[in-house]
Amino acid sequence: MWFLVVGIFACSASLNDAQYLLGLAEGEVCSDRSEGQWICTAHKQCTHVDLKVMRPTICSFKGKLPIICCPPKKKMSKAEMSCLRYIAEIPCPIKISIPGVHIAVVGGKESKSKTQRHMRQTAENDTEELPPPSIVGGQPAPSRKHREMALIGYGPKNNIDWRCGGSLVSELWVLSAAHCTNTADSGPAAWARLGELDHSTNNDDARPQDQRIVQRINHPQYKEPLKYHDIALYKLESRVLFDQYVAPICLHTAFDIDEPKGTVVGWGRTDFADDVSSRLMEVDITLIDNPECRRLYGSNDPTAPRGIERLTMLCAGEKEGGKDACIGDSGGPMVINQPGSCLKKQVGITSFGRDCGLPNSPGIYTRVSSYVGWIESIVWP
């Protein structure tokens, strides 16, 4: 009897001190919850959960092996499935270094004539100076690093005014900020340019393609001039062909972000009155927790009367100042790296800020994970 007690205790201890036996056999339902039925399963078969964290209840024993109450496998979201498809199907640019020349090809598919033309253009402009950074404390983004980026333009085709940014999330849809959807002087968002690097020259390492925006959908809870739910989707006129210059971004679906910093990308604007940078810029910014952000930002902004909401907003900045996205594109993404993939994962959308680049003046971003369900209902219905 003593040996039996020791055996049960040792096994229970290894499963984080499970408290009691349910007296149920393998295969029986041990719990019925909103997310589905929990089934009594051999602990070695319940591989989709961390048993050290979950502290499972033991249904019974099969010999010396515990049968535990195992939750159903989490159903993968449409956004997560699309991300896996993108990673599997879209190759990364392969960079080839030649002194004075920078070339990137995917799987050797770039034509010889295009490669040679790019070599001539790059060599001719090898001494070209990059424009000064517009994102505070930022730097020019490397070519093809942010293939998800979209420029959002306004006005007629022969005189497009590029004012906002966005990110490509599928072959037909661009994600941006709701406050970018309409302007007082130039009307609604009308154009999306993909595959761009520097829109002031044709001699950069880019292959831009312009798409007409045919549908604009703001989040139903966005109420201008309030800053809450500042997120929108823009439908393109035709499907985008992914290549070494254009690729979609994955969406961060978990609430928590396991990174200390996010990278903000844009062409240098958050306010329509500011000058823009023609060159794509990026800056790494420290994420700030909500209590600290609410303290720093305060509650005196009439456009954010409830303060900075933890569930729908992200906060980022440097306490000492010097780095900010307040002159970066509104609507552009805050991204993090995705291990094992050249495709980025989007955690935020540049929304608003104040006291650009000054100490203790964080920028505010729409928290993408809180809107994945809404995005999926439109992009992947």
UniProtKB/TrEMBL annotation:
According to the UniProt record, one GO cellular component term is: extracellular space
Q: Which N-terminal residues, if any, form the signal peptide?
A: 1-18
Q: Record the organism.
A: Lygus hesperus (Western plant bug)
User: Which keywords annotate this record?
Assistant: Disulfide bond, Glycoprotein, Hydrolase, Protease, Serine protease, Signal
Which PROSITE patterns did the record assign?
Answer: TRYPSIN_DOM, TRYPSIN_HIS, TRYPSIN_SER
Q: Name one GO molecular function term.
A: serine-type endopeptidase activity
Gene Ontology BP annotations:
proteolysis
Q: What is this protein called?
A: Serine protease snake
Q: Which PANTHER family match?
A: PEPTIDASE S1 DOMAIN-CONTAINING PROTEIN (PTHR24264:SF54), TRYPSIN-RELATED (PTHR24264)
Known SMART domains for this protein? Tryp_SPc
Q: Residue ranges of the Peptidase S1 domain?
A: 135-380
Q: Which Pfam families does the UniProt record give?
A: Trypsin (PF00089)
Stretches the record annotates as Disordered = 109-142
Q: Which gene encodes it?
A: snk_8
Which family does this protein fall into? Belongs to the peptidase S1 family. CLIP subfamily.
Keyword Disulfide bond present in the record's keywords: the answer is yes
